[in-house]
Design goal:
Layout: E1 3-9, H1 17-26, E2 34-40, E3 47-52, H2 56-59, H3 63-66, E4 73-79, E5 95-96, E6 101-109, H4 112-115, H5 129-136, H6 144-151, E7 154-162, E8 169-174, E9 179-183, E10 188-192, H7 195-202, E11 208-209, E12 212-213, E13 219-223, E14 228-233, E15 236-242, E16 263-266, E17 273-276, E18 283-284, E19 291-292, H8 294-297
Antiparallel strand pairs: 1-4, 1-10, 2-3, 2-4, 5-6, 6-7, 7-8, 8-14, 9-10, 9-13, 11-12, 14-15, 16-17, 18-19
């Protein structure tokens, strides 16, 4: 489990830096092995990345953060180590290319070794690097997000920025959370892995009248659907598009319409909620990857 967050300021109001810092530190509960942030410098139009193998609570005490004047768009990450040691900073997020494409990722990719070949070399060990490889390898100018869904086996919540299109932000969701709040007064969109983290950091509280909730003042909550990508530009929503993943639930399960016959059950090994399909010969828990038999359904 890792944490992702960030914001997009559409108007003249820049977020309160203390609130963004608090949100970043709260996000540390999702990962303390490393942390980082990235943005496109408005003066040079170049990607700027700061990251280190320290928790967010320490990174915000560095000169890179203390002296930073918040940009209009920024992405953040807190890392819980799964694959690739944090001591090698290339394993930490944000991950980026020399062309100025940067991502933060929460989730796990299971076929990352298949992505890298003699022509496509990996620079680190982290599985998230395969996401960066697919997004940046787009010589045919096709839909790079579509390529992502059709190529990767795993679960992911990804945020992407590019210096070639500095006013564009992409949020990509497959089986892992991305929650959003839009402040209609300040004209700022916030996003994070957890709704509660934004509520606490931004001071969002529900208001009531006659016992009925009438909203959260100027904040408006939105939930992204699975297998969707939300692309934002300076005018607002550029696109909100659904994609068909090649793999369903991760672990090499090819998608087909028969998955409509699957049921939700508790995995007998990790006790997480997972899917079981009656027509598949082999079922695996989407969390711990243990095989599940028909007998387990009736336990």
């Amino acid at each position: 489990m890792c944490g992702i967050m960030g914001y997009y300021s559409f108007g003249r109001t820049i977020p309160d830096k203390k609130k963004i810092e608090k949100m970043f530190v709260l996000l540390e509960t999702r990962g303390r092995d490393a942390s980082g942030f990235a943005f496109i410098d408005p003066v040079t139009n170049k990607l700027k990345v700061t990251k280190s193998d320290v928790p967010a609570s320490k990174l915000v005490r560095t000169k890179e953060w203390v002296s930073l004047r918040l940009p209009r768009i920024q992405i953040f990450h807190t890392r819980l180590q799964t694959q690739g040691i944090p001591a090698n900073n290339m394993n930490n997020h944000p991950l980026f290319t020399k062309d100025g494409l940067a991502i933060v990722h929460n989730g796990q990719i299971y076929n990352d070794n298949e992505i890298f070949t003699r022509k496509v070399k990996r620079d680190a060990q982290v599985d998230s690097e395969s996401i960066l490889a697919v997004l940046s390898n787009n010589k045919r100018k096709t839909d790079k997000i579509k390529n992502l869904f059709e190529t990767l086996d795993g679960v992911f919540a990804v945020v992407m920025i590019e210096q070639t299109v500095p006013e564009r932000l992409a949020l990509i969701k497959k089986d892992n959370p991305i929650e959003l709040y839009y402040n209609s007064e300040d004209d700022i969109l916030y996003f994070a892995s957890e709704k509660g983290i934004m509520q606490e950091a931004l001071g969002i509280e529900s208001t009531y009248r006659r016992g009925f909730s009438i909203g959260e003042n100027n904040y408006h909550y939105y939930h992204m659907d699975d297998n969707h990508a939300l692309v934002i530009n300076k005018n607002g929503i550029e696109s909100y598009k659904k994609y068909q993943p090649r793999y369903s639930f991760g672990y090499g399960d090819i998608v087909n319409d028969c998955f409509d016959d699957s049921l939700l059950m508790e995995c007998p090994y990790c006790f997480e909620t997972t899917h079981y399909s009656w027509i598949k010969l082999n079922n695996k828990c989407q969390h711990c990857r243990q095989y599940i038999s028909e007998e387990d359904v009736y336990v």
